[in-house]
Design brief:
single chain, 141 residues, alpha+beta, two-stranded antiparallel sheet, 28% strand
Amino acid sequence: MLRTELADGLPPVGGDRVQLQQVIINLARNALEAMVDVHDRPRELLIKTEHDSDEHVRLTVEDRGVGFGAQGLARLFDPFYTTKRDGMGMGLSVSHSIIQSHHGRLWAELNDGPGVRFAFSLPQRSGNTALQTATIRRSGS
């Protein structure tokens, strides 16, 4: 089940649309893959946008998958580290680099229950940016 909680009225962020889309797709795909072997509870994916501190916008991808231990949490963004059987360990490392190049921050947290929450925060677009504008909007608006 996909749930969205997309905030209204978020300011645009500056950035390369294709790169930011790649990050979002990677996080969503990882979340879906983390839930593929879950059969004893609902498989739920939450995508949420909201205002963040210091004039930033946050996007969160949360799953109810199998999760991983605290040791894995410390290494998630290392190149070639993976928690998947068939993973290459490059997606999160590349995503981390993309978000950093946009002057943002990407992090992961274990849920209170099963699963993991990934989030990234990007600064609002300033008036003098040469980058394309990426706006995270509600579907249909």
